[in-house]
Amino acid sequence: MEYSKFENKYILRLDKGEEIISSLKDFCINNSIRLGNISGLGSTNSIKIGLFDTTKKEYFSKEFTGDFEILNLTGNISTMDGEIYLHVHVTISDSELHSYGGHLNSAIVSGTAEIIIETIEGSIERTYNPNIGLNLFDFKK
User: Fold this and answer.
1) What is d(CA 136, CA 129) in angstroms, rounded to the nearest whole number?
2) Bridge partners of 126?
3) Where would I find the beta strands (DSSP E) of the chain?
4) pLDDT digits over 108-133, tens only?
5) Residue 25 domain boundaries
């Protein structure tokens, strides 16, 4: 990974073989980023994305292998129990231009990934909400 910083924005380039979520989490930890948003695009040949089933209150994931364009990667950075928490969604497209999307669990970069992180001063903690089954922003903390 290489990057440059411009005011409150980081421009990152992830290289072939890097895993996106773990790389972004490590980057946030190493640069003390506790709140912000993420956007990006690129390519992957191994990706796992999911969908949250609101009735069962659990994620169902699907793995894709082969050549895929990352059409859109978007998400946010917060904390939960004081640790960095990334919530990222992705849309990908295959060689037939069929698109798939969902919650990004993991993705290995096959060519490059170009990511922008915009930092926000402060922090917002997440708390698990048992009624919904998700970790939600908690504005009371």
Assistant:
1) 7
2) 137
3) 2-6, 9-15, 36-53, 58-80, 83-93, 99-119, 125-129, 134-138
4) 999 999 999 999 999 999 999 999 99
5) 2-138
